[in-house]
Amino acid sequence: MATYNRVIRKLVVAFGDLFKDITLVRYNPDETESERFVIPITYATKELYVQRLQGDPDLDKRVQMTLPRLSYEMSGFTYDATRKQNTNIRNVGVSNSNGAIAQYNPVPYNFDFKLYLYVRNIEDASQVLEHVLSYFTPDYTIKLNMIPEMGIVREVPILLNGTEQDIVYEGNRDSDTRMIVWTLNFTAKAYIYGSISSVGLIKTSITNILNDISPSDSVILNMTLTNGVGNYKLGETVYQGYNLSTATASGEVESWTNGRLTLTNVSGNFISSRPIIGSSTNANYTFESYQFTPVDLAKVIVVPNPTTANVNDSYTYTTIISESANGANVVIPSTTSYIIDLNTENKYIDLL
Fold first, then answer.
1. Is-contact 36 124, C-beta < 8 A?
2. Using one digit for the tens of pLDDT, what is the confidence trace for 247-306?
3. Residue 345 pLDDT more than 80?
4. Is 96 inside a domain boundary?
5. Which of 276, 292, 308 marks a domain boundary?
6. Rounded to an integer, what distance in angstroms lies between the CA atom of residue 180 and that of residue 90?
7. DSSP secondary structure letters along 238-275
8. Burial of 242 (0-12, 13-18, 19+ CB in 10 A)
9. What is the pLDDT of residues 216-245, one digit of tens each?
10. Same domain, 320 and 190
């Protein structure tokens, strides 16, 4: 699936929406209401907006109609190591088809925003600032539907870092044409999400329980002939380790034919990445696979009911246990209620 989740776009739009309905009220000298209007807001840098306003040759006549105004921009972002999560953990959700989708944990970033307030007089600025500052203590949390496909809704704190004032004059400072610009600096603590992948569900579990290897059992090792030298001798003791006295595993050679080493009287655990050394011939090879003659003790089969159960569905499951007792198979059925929840790691294992 596509990697572009539009997280940054959603964050920018959500930040602007916080300030889109600010209403400014102007009063007459007797404190009766003179006019009321919603301050327009747009995405633009301060320099661009100031140039547009000052580009009007009749600024001193029209600025009162043009102002107040709001604009904002995202000025940058930085990685936030203090909120790092284990990026090897995947979140699992429901796909549109009969299956699941997964996504690794997101990466934390701090996004810096600047909100610019352009006014003609201090009274307008004070009213707007009081309206905005009352919501930030010093942060305000919004809730965003980050990844709809995964059902991920994230609460994003937006922190007010500080404010700055700048008075811009057109002409000399004795002129009554001026523009007051307030800059409010914010930081949004958000996350960046990676790609979404499809995950198949394992709906049938089969477990075979076999007998343990006894010292008298024969074990056949398929050796890697390209990685070793020499020939083992019938009856010699082979081992893994620095020497035979401190060996981590050992056995007696029963046969050595065409790269197949058969051992008996095995003790310890042989590891495929380490050479098996002959105590008298010094032959040594690593093995790539092994086999022995096992005895089936039991088989456990687990199947959900219904078999079309999907992620987070309620369902029951049927367990069939086939045990070998005195040469006869005994079948023990069992039914248990269960709810699939792939967002909980220990329950996910039960589906395997």
1. no
2. 999 999 999 998 999 999 888 888 888 999 999 999 999 998 888 766 677 888 998 888
3. no
4. yes
5. 292
6. 49
7. EEESSSGGG-SEEEEEEEEETTEEEEEEEEE---TTS-
8. exposed
9. 778 889 998 888 999 999 999 999 999 999
10. no
The two tokens of residue 268 are 């310890």
Q: Beta-strand (E) ranges in 80-151? A: 90-94, 100-104, 107-119, 139-147
Are 34 and 174 within one domain? Answer: yes
Identify whether 2 is part of a domain. no
Asked if 161 contacts 186 with a C-beta cutoff of 8 angstroms, the reply is: yes
Regarding whether 277 and 245 lie in a shared domain, the answer is yes
Distance CA 38, CA 20 (A): 8
Residue 224's domain comprises 212-292
CA distance 172 to 63: 17
State how far the Cα of 202 lies from the Cα of 304, in Å rounded to an integer. 10
**Domain stops at, among 199, 221, 244:** 199
The answer to whether the predicted template modeling score (pTM) of the entire model surpasses 0.85 is no
